[in-house]
Amino acid sequence: MSNTLITFIRHGESYANVEPIVESLTCRGLTAKGITQAHALAKRITAEQWQYDVLYASTLKRAQMTAQIIAPSLNLPITWDDDLHELRVGELDGMHYQDISQQYPTFDNAIKDVHTKVAPNGESWNEFALRCAATLNAIATLHTGKRIAVVCHGGVIECAFLWACDLNAGFRRRVAFPVHNTAFTTWHHRVSPFDQRLEWQLLCHNNHTHLTHA
Q1: CA 121 → CA 88, 89, 116, 178, distances in Å?
Q2: pTM given for the model
Q3: Which residues of 119-137 are buried (b: 16+ CB within 10 A; e: fewer)?
Q4: Which residues are catalytic?
Q5: CATH number for the domain whose boundaries are 4-211
Q6: What is the dihedral of CA 90, 91, 92, 98, to 10 degrees?
Q7: 149, 131, 136: which is closest to 5 by C-alpha?
Q8: DSSP three-state, residue 120
Q9: Domains of the chain: which residue ranges?
Q10: Torsions phi, psi of 80, nearest 5?
Q11: Which of 130, 189, 138, 188 has its CA nearest to residue 156?
């Protein structure tokens, strides 16, 4: 009986969300609005008395800042994990989208051709999905039966759907699972009441009601 709960939290609004620049390791972190969003989530966590056992976070600056803001509300230390990074873009890091389209046309086809790297030293969507699956499986296995919070990125949350539903990366050619900044998505690994098999049950997706005034 697993009874494992995982809540994925997307980082607050980052500069890369509002400016036409790709940011990975060059990430400048959250905008003023993103900081406000993270504090709004922290207030919700406190008001609703969320109870979690562990808190993981990506080491990219936008996720770091978000995790550091909400960690006191969860009363948990942060476990940093590089493998929770967004899609790794390699040589595109820090580039303007206009320049990317001219120099690296494969970037625009990354979803259509999930086996092609977005750029030299970057990942394909298939590699990204496999990395996320391995990382999430390791976290879930290490903390079986626990309540896990994970501060990460929109792409990681989309890959979590592929992982939980046992889908390959090619599924992303037709279906998307968008998520708002600081929204959370929660999965519960439980025994089915019908046939006793273990299943991942989606409890909520893209819940961001705390942003009404943020």
Answers
A1: 8, 7, 12, 26
A2: 0.96
A3: beebbbbbbbbbbbbebbe
A4: 11, 86
A5: 3.40.50.1240
A6: -160
A7: 149
A8: coil
A9: 4-211
A10: -85, 140
A11: 130
The letter for the amino acid at 25 is L
Any idea how long the chain is?
214
| Helix, strand, coil tally for the chain in percent (to 5) | 40, 20, 40
pLDDT given for residue 1 in this prediction: 67
Beta bridge partners of 150: 8, 56
23's CB contacts (< 8 A; 6+ apart) are 14, 15, 16, 62, 93, 94
Tokens read off for 90: 């390699």
Tell me: the pLDDT tens digits for 23-77? 999 999 999 999 999 999 999 999 999 999 999 999 999 999 999 999 999 999 9
Residue showing tokens 């790297």: 117
What is the distance between the alpha carbons of residues 32 and 208, in angstroms, rounded to a whole number?
18
Distance CA 45, CA 56 (A): 16
- Are residues 52 and 36 in contact, defined by beta-carbon separation less than 8 angstroms? no
